Amino acid sequence: MKLHLVSGFLGSGKTTAISLACNQLMQNGLGVGVITNDQGINLVDSGFFRSLSIPIRQVINGCFCCNFNQLDQSLQSLIDSERPGIIFAESVGSCTDIVATVLNPLSHFHPDIQITVSAFADSRLLLTLLQGNFTPFDEEVNYIYNKQLEEAGIMVMNKIDLLEAKDLKELKRLAGERFRDKILLYQNSLNKGSIARWLEELDNPQPASSNSPLEINYDLYASGEAKLAWVDQEILMESATNNAIEEAFVLISKIHSGIKENNFAIGHLKFLLNGNTKLSYTTAGEADARIMESEKAFFATLLINARVQTEPGTLARLIEDSIKEIETSTGCKIITREISAFQPGFPSATYRMADPFINSQPGGG
Ligand SMILES: Nc1nc2c(ncn2[C@@H]2O[C@H](COP(=O)(O)OP(=O)(O)OP(=O)(O)O)[C@@H](O)[C@H]2O)c(=O)[nH]1
Ligand SMILES: [Mg+2]
């Protein structure tokens, strides 16, 4: 059994790559499974994987490292019920230190499982950082971003299709200089060939030394996480005019533009419409809606997962105001079924091991 840990910042493309990789593996007759992870409970990504009939388990209410036992149980449950050859575990995009707190404990307790770690980065954001330019995020958030890249043996510089040729050349030069000892992949996760290349790399046994346990300042890490607000909200839209889908798109666009107008940096703003259509905005701006606005419906469900650099109360109010405005302008009725707004708590790992086979000490943080 192989387990591929997939880390990397919010919106860098982990779910996209994993879903395409699973499709390819399933087409080749291999059993797969995915473990999703988040600080929240009601996850767009879990719904997205379910809509693709990919078997999943979730580790919720905190990162893998703080919920190691839940991760372990999810792994066992997937193995027992699906007998997969390959499992992908996608860690929440605000999490780091996973070599010491996830990889090493897993290797310690499951020496029979072959484990890899890939860290994803949005090539555009990474290039900005490597060039020494300002990103839209505060320094403490960038600290997490850099730590995620530092620890993984395989670095996937993703979304290269969105870079101009000269920028890709520059990224290759700068990344080659900074990450000398890593396997560097320049990837377009929407492209089958690019995903096949990643899978090929994952198939090679990774020497334990290719991943590096971090020296990390947990206070700084925690303050980076605390800079981000999380709002998860599930709503039901009832249209007076059989236009619930169109009205949902208007609401999505209203929430996005509200966040932009306030100049809040977006980690990831994602939506799951009717349990099967994922729309996604990151700080670089793209939304990849498969347009279905002309579809007629009296009802639509919308799950909102917003991870944005601001206060949770501010973000929740912005979403609520957008909802009210859409109700007034379209005449539809919007019922909130579930909502939570918070910022991630101080990370406190179940285990922290500098080496899987030598020392073991409880706790990170
Ligand atoms: N053009 C392009 N878009 C991509 C690529 N990979 C991902 N995306 C888009 O980037 C957005 C975010 O992708 P996700 O796969 O949801 O990112 P993620 O890392 O799983 O995000 P979190 O789980 O929130 O941390 C979506 O709009 C994807 O369609 C890529 O290689 N090229
Ligand atoms: Mg994801």
Concise overview:
By secondary structure, the chain is of the alpha/beta class. The chain has eleven helices and 14 strands. Helix 7 (165-178) links the parallel strand 6 and strand 7 (183-186).
Question: How does the SSE layout of this entry go?
Answer:
Layout: E1 2-8, H1 14-27, E2 32-37, H2 44-51, E3 56-59, H3 68-82, E4 86-90, H4 98-109, E5 114-122, H5 123-130, H6 139-151, E6 154-158, H7 165-178, E7 183-186, H8 192-203, H9 218-226, E8 229-238, H10 244-261, E9 266-273, E10 277-281, E11 299-308, H11 312-330, E12 333-342, E13 351-352, E14 361-362
Parallel strand pairs: 1-4, 1-5, 2-3, 2-4, 5-6, 6-7
Antiparallel strand pairs: 8-11, 8-12, 9-10, 9-11, 13-14
Helix pairs in contact: 1-8, 5-7, 6-9, 10-11
The structure holds guanosine-5'-triphosphate (GTP) and magnesium ion.
Inertia-based shape: globular
The helical percent reads: 25-40%
Q: What's the total helix number?
A: 11
Helix-strand pattern: EHEHEHEHEHHEHEHHEHEEEHEEE
CATH architecture of the largest domain: 3-Layer(aba) Sandwich
N→C terminal distance? 31 Å
Features:
single chain, 365 residues, alpha/beta, Rossmann fold, Alpha-Beta Plaits, 11 helices, 24% strand, globular, binds guanosine-5'-triphosphate, binds magnesium ion
Your description of this structure?
This protein has 365 residues and is of the alpha/beta class. It has helices at residues 14-27, 44-51, 68-82, 98-109, 123-130, 139-151, 165-178, 192-203, 218-226, 244-261, 312-330, and strands at 2-8, 32-37, 56-59, 86-90, 114-122, 154-158, 183-186, 229-238, 266-273, 277-281, 299-308, 333-342, 351-352, 361-362. A hairpin with an 8-residue loop joins β13 (351-352) and β14 (361-362). The structure holds guanosine-5'-triphosphate and magnesium ion. The site of guanosine-5'-triphosphate has 22 residues, from α1.
